[in-house]
Design a protein that fits this description.
mainly alpha
Length: about 80
């Protein structure tokens, strides 16, 4: 079960970085931030799906959505 939470934490971290790249891509007009966003979100969803093999869906999704949203808002404030 600890491995599931570790995978979930990695997915959340990738989501935060990818969301930051979405802003940096300026509407997908800049290549590198756009590629980083697409690759990061794809990897994020893959790792999240692996965490769901070890954690209940409701708990994992609530943590992923809540923590991801809160930390993304904090990153936006500081950047």
């Amino acid at each position: 079960m600890l491995k599931g939470y570790l995978l979930l934490a990695i997915a959340i971290a990738l989501e935060i970085v990818s969301t930051s790249m979405l802003k940096a891509s300026c509407g997908f007009t800049k290549l590198m931030p756009s590629v980083a966003f697409i690759a990061g979100m794809g990897t994020c969803f893959y790792i999240f799906s692996k965490s769901l093999l070890l954690l209940p869906l409701g708990i994992a999704y609530a943590i992923w959505a809540g923590v991801g949203t809160a930390l993304t808002a904090l990153v936006a404030v500081f950047i």
